[in-house]
Amino acid sequence: MADETQKAPVAGAQDQNATQEQPAKLYTYYYSNPDGASKDERCHAVYTEVPFDVVPWRMHKEEPNASMSDPVWDNNLNNGLGAWRENSGEAQGQILAEAQAKLRELDQNSAQLDKANDKVDQAVKTMQQVQAQSSQQNVALMKSFTEKAQNTNKLLASMQQTLALVVKANQANATPVAPAQSQPAASTTDASASQTQPVSDNQ
Questions:
Q1: d(CA 175, CA 181)
Q2: Global confidence as pTM
């Protein structure tokens, strides 16, 4: 039999309470779709002021046990009369809903992963650009260094040639100084001969 509930009178009403009619009784039924994707579809209460002569499809008078966290109606229980049981998670609608929820979660994770990959790609591109600029600068520096070294070598070679020419010219322009020659001494015989007068035969 469906549960019966009375509406409480409006608090604070004064004289009108006496003239108001008694509130109508509410009858409670419980809707259950065994293949429901959500807990609310598998069991929720329906209230009506008029009781059903014939309970609609998937509506039940019996209240599920309060200890059940996710009750669902099973037509195979109670010798085919049906009864409430704890949801086992085997309903096709629930499995489909859970699969769809997982797919949505995977899509979100995939989108986040794509964003992370984009950031990584951007970081790699930035690093490659920095490396390329650094390589270009290194090549330019090496080229400049090589050119300066070549110019320095040319300058040193030119200075060596100039120095060699200066040394050669100095050697060519230098006047050699001849050593002083000594006069030979006159012989004593020649000196005595010049001083002796010849003797004349006339004497």
A1: 18
A2: 0.40
